[in-house]
Amino acid sequence: MKMRASFSHPGLEYTAFLFEPLGDDRNGVPLALASILGRMSLDPWSEAASLAAMPTDVAAHKLASIIEAMPHQVVPRVESSTLAERLIRLLPKRPGPAAPATQPLADARAIERRPLFRYLVWLALFCVLLIAARFG
């Protein structure tokens, strides 16, 4: 069952991405991407939204560089790109191009105004015919 938008948290779709277990740090504390980003003073939800808006390969490269830049490196560099690719797959699916059946808002408003335009044209034509009949 899908939650209605009014009752869902705006960052809820990034939960799987941000809280996927990544292992333990050197002190035995479990790590997730949210904790890594927090340790780097980055907002996890805005970073997730930014990565979700990027093409997959660019997002994976950026995430790998974030993981590599983590202080007190926990994840070896050889694994950072593999880990980044795995995590990027957990981001919500990016919307594809709009289907041809959908119309931009401007076009929808133009269609709504067409009946009014037709009404005004018929009204003007009717007035011209009345004036022509009266004076003709």
Q: Average pLDDT value?
A: 76
Q: Major β-sheet, in short?
A: 2 strands, antiparallel
Q: SS-based structural class? A: mainly alpha
Cα gyration radius (Å): 28 Å
Count of discrete domains = 2
Short summary of the structure?
The chain has 136 residues and is mainly alpha-helical. 57% of the residues lie in helices and 5% in strands.
Description:
The chain is mainly α and 136 residues long. It is built from 6 helices and 2 strands, in the order H-E-E-H-H-H-H-H. The protein has 2 domains: 77 residues, no CATH class; 34 residues. The chain is 57% helix and 5% strand. Strands 1-2 form a two-stranded antiparallel ribbon. The chain is rod-shaped, with a radius of gyration of 28 Å.
Secondary structure elements and their pairing?
Blueprint: H1 15-18, E1 21-24, E2 30-32, H2 33-39, H3 44-53, H4 56-68, H5 77-88, H6 105-135
Antiparallel strand pairs: 1-2
Helix pairs in contact: 3-4, 4-5
